[in-house]
């Protein structure tokens, strides 16, 4: 049995937890209002009122109106990266990133309705897709850096093309998560996110052979 590695990420204090809760409340209010009324009809003032904060507080968490509709949980991303950095040296790289994400999927399950609403919002407002892509590329690069740190600590032999591997693994991981999330949102009844995610990684581990 594989033992989950301990990370050095400290538990957030009360102030930090309040900040995280405020950010989530604003993002959730934005997505729910946009799903009902359309992004173009939702103002910062309306989002702030629904979230119980002031417009000034809104801009403390989001640089612009459109940023609030893109759900990116920075705390989850950092926990995943810490898991990767502290994974045992002998683990297969694909297993390391899969296990890092599986450890966080329970939190996703609790927010299925919100993820589904956000998917609809993005489909109706294509200009937001570019903004979301930019955020996910940043997450992908950060994960690639964590994979590089783990490989270096594991004593992996460097080669002229070694810099490609962390980037490829991070990109594959992000794509696998996106595919599993989209399938889960499109089939809300009878679909478990963890099962979909594990199935995606099983295909990857087998080298993507033709399905039977």
Entry keywords:
212 residues; mainly alpha; Tetracycline Repressor, domain 2; disordered N terminus
Topology:
Blueprint: H1 14-37, H2 44-51, H3 55-61, H4 74-85, H5 93-102, H6 105-109, H7 112-124, H8 127-153, H9 164-186, H10 193-205
Helix pairs in contact: 1-2, 1-7, 4-5, 4-8, 5-9, 7-9, 8-9, 9-10
Largest sheet: none
- Amount of helix: 55-70%
Query: CATH superfamily membership, which one?
Result: Tetracycline Repressor, domain 2
The overall strand count is 0
Determine Rg (CA atoms, Å): 19 Å
- On the 0 to 100 scale, the average pLDDT is 84
What is the CATH topology? Tetracycline Repressor, domain 2
> What class do helices, strands and sheet pairing give?
mainly alpha
Task: Output the helix-strand order.
Answer: HHHHHHHHHH
CATH architecture: Orthogonal Bundle
Number of helices: 10
Distance between the termini: 29 Å
Which CATH class is shown?
Answer: Mainly Alpha
**Number of self-contained structural domains:** 1
Please mark out the parts with pLDDT under 50 across 5 or more consecutive residues, or reply none: 1-9
């Amino acid at each position: 049995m594989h033992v989950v590695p301990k990370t050095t990420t400290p538990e957030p204090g009360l102030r930090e937890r309040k900040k995280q809760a405020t950010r989530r409340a604003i993002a959730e209010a934005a997505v729910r209002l946009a799903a009902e009324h359309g992004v173009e009809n939702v103002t910062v003032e309306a989002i702030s009122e629904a979230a119980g904060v002031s417009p000034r507080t809104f801009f403390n968490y989001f640089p612009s109106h459109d940023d609030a509709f893109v759900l990116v949980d920075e705390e989850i991303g950092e926990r995943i990266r810490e898991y990767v950095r502290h994974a045992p040296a002998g683990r297969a790289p694909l297993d390391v990133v899969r296990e890092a994400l599986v450890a966080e999927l329970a939190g996703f399950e609790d927010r299925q309705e919100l993820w589904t609403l956000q998917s609809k919002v993005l489909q109706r407002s294509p200009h937001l897709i570019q903004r979301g892509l930019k955020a996910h590329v940043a997450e992908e690069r950060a994960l690639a850096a964590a994979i590089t740190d783990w490989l270096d600590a594991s004593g992996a032999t460097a080669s002229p093309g070694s810099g490609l591997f962390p980037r490829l693994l991070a990109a594959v991981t992000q794509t696998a998560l996106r595919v599993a999330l989209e399938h889960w949102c499109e089939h809300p009844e009878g679909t478990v996110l963890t099962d979909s995610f594990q199935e995606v990684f099983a295909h990857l581990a087998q080298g993507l052979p033709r399905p039977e």
